[in-house]
Amino acid sequence: MALTLAASGLNLRRLTALRADSDGLCPLAGQDLPAAPALALAHAALIHQEAQAAPGLAAWPLTLNSQSLGTLLAEGLTGNLADGEETHGPALELLAPHCAAALDRAQTLDELRRRGELFRQLAEHSPHGLIVGWPDGRIEEVNPAYLALLGYTHEQFLAGEVGWPGLHPAEAQEHAASAPVAEALRTGESGPHLTSALTRDGQPLPLSVTLRRLGSAERPQLAAYVRDLRAQTAAEERLQEPGASPETLLRDNQHELGVRAEVLLSQHAELAVRTRALDAFALLSRDLVLETDRAALVRRAQEITLDLLPPGYAVYYEPEGPVWRLKSQVGELGHPALQTVVDAGLPLDSAQNLNLPWRTGEPLYQDTYDLNTDQLGELVRHIGATASLPVMLDGRPVGVFAVALFGRRRWSVTDRTVMETATFNLGLALDRARALAEVATRTTELERSNAELERFAYVASHDLQAPLRAMTSFSDLLTHRYGQTLDERGRLYLQQISENGVHMKRLVDDLLGFSRLHTGHLATEACDFGGLFDQLRLRLHDEIVTLGARVTRGPLPVVPGHKAQLDQLLQNLVQNGLKYHREGVAPAVEVTARRGDHEWIFAVKDNGIGIEPQHFERIFVIFQRLHGREQYEGTGIGLAICQKIVERHGGRLWVESTPGEGSTFQFTLPAQD
User: Fold this and answer.
1) Is 96:74 a contact under the CB 8 Å cutoff?
2) Which residues pair with 491 in a beta bridge?
3) CA 263, 265, 270, 274 torsion: positive or negative?
4) For an engineered disulfide with 143, which of 34, 130, 413, 584 has Cβ 3.0 to 4.6 Å away?
5) What does pTM read for this prediction?
6) What Å distances lie between residue 428 and 274, 285, 299, CA to CA?
7) Per the domain annotation, does 649 fall within a domain?
8) What is the CATH classification number for the domain harbouring 627?
9) How does pLDDT run across 359-407, given as a tens digit for each residue?
């Protein structure tokens, strides 16, 4: 598109103003960077401070007050300055000063914006209060330090709750005529002056304020720098008290500093304890995750808890019949006779240090241990403080975690957090250990079940098939040798014996195949479904020809799987489509596949008799048949085998069907990575 400047008669495709900075030549905001030849020409014009031209290009330096600002670049000219044509020179010379002025204004605005942002950041992070407003007392902006000084939020300021008349009522009427304001308006800055403001709760706040004039003389604004004088005022008031002197004030300040130092040391010690506790919890969490033995879990929690406390011992009890039975102990009890009593079991009705946490589900802390709590008398006189916490599992207590210290102790928030977190994590770990034990039990049961299935498979393949083979063989032998001497009914009986023997053998074979799907490791390999289909079609060639069927496929992928099982899956579904065909309609079966997100979706579509929707799930249940054997031969196991194969491969199998039109069996298999 051509840009025509009618006033100058300049015809061109693009006009670009480039400014000079530390990185070289840069286009103004919103403009594209010129092509390399144009940029080189513009750079030459800037360096040599004179017009430069090339075919279709012209560059003119932009200067203001003898200072180089950049270059004006014209692209797509219809003439060429280098060829001596002067049609463009005057136009560029006319445009250059205007562009230079515009470029200078843009740079000035950028600098103002930069300085404004710097000022805003300085104001926001200043430790002293800052106000910007008008001589009549109206406030336009304040910084966070000023709002914090008075107890207001920025939202309250925006809502109009912060203003000079309300905060400085004594000066509100005379603010504009006050000496500091007059001085700041006259000289540009006032000296510090003392005033006061009201905090949000109405308390007077002594301040030192310095004013500085902003803006033009016709419309000036004022910036107020505010300093809190409370500490200074308090010190001056104390000096005015009878008997006060700089020396006593210094001693008082030293005492106050000492108190503050003690507080800081206490806070530092508390922080150190919390840091140790956090490190211990990290270690405890790791150990509890790695460990599964119940006794080892309890002991580890006791060890880490005691490591964070003064000398003492930790015990863990569970109720057994009429006594509290000691399950785990870390540390010496401090009295041999006490150890004997504890090992024998504490009576349920007397050990209140254990009973109360168990009944209430809440911890019990004693800063000074009451000797009557557990009715142990002199055996526990050496114990100073105790803590007893219930260990919960599924919302119910399973034991009590107790700690006894040999000295008195005021249980702090950190102490309580340490022990309550330890017992909570212990409960989680015990729950996890229980779940793992249940999984191990179920695994053992499954292994036993698999072993029984394998034994059944052995029986089915040997003990059952041997008599079946004998029955079928003798039936065939009778038919061959004595069939002519039997009447029609006798021959029919022999035929039924033979056919039922064959059917029974097929049923046993299918049961054997179905049981083997539940056992053993699924060894996978890359399986070419296209190759499996082609081999299947060769095996079924005679059946396909006899039925006049059409069995086809689309492009089929390679997927990871058990080759023999996937071959059986494909064969069962294709033969299903051939078997359940409509009378007088040649069977047609088509196998296709399409890619999903992380899987392949296969479809085996036929034009058979179809299935009613209410039977869509029933057909996958073993031995569930929709038709009698006199209509369609089969054992009722084929689709159950298909579903089991697909599920073992991490997929799913379902059917979509319209009665009288056909069915489509679809299944998914994971795609190869």
Assistant:
1) no
2) none
3) positive
4) 130
5) 0.39
6) 22, 10, 15
7) yes
8) 3.30.565.10
9) 999 999 999 998 888 888 888 899 999 999 999 988 899 999 999 999 8
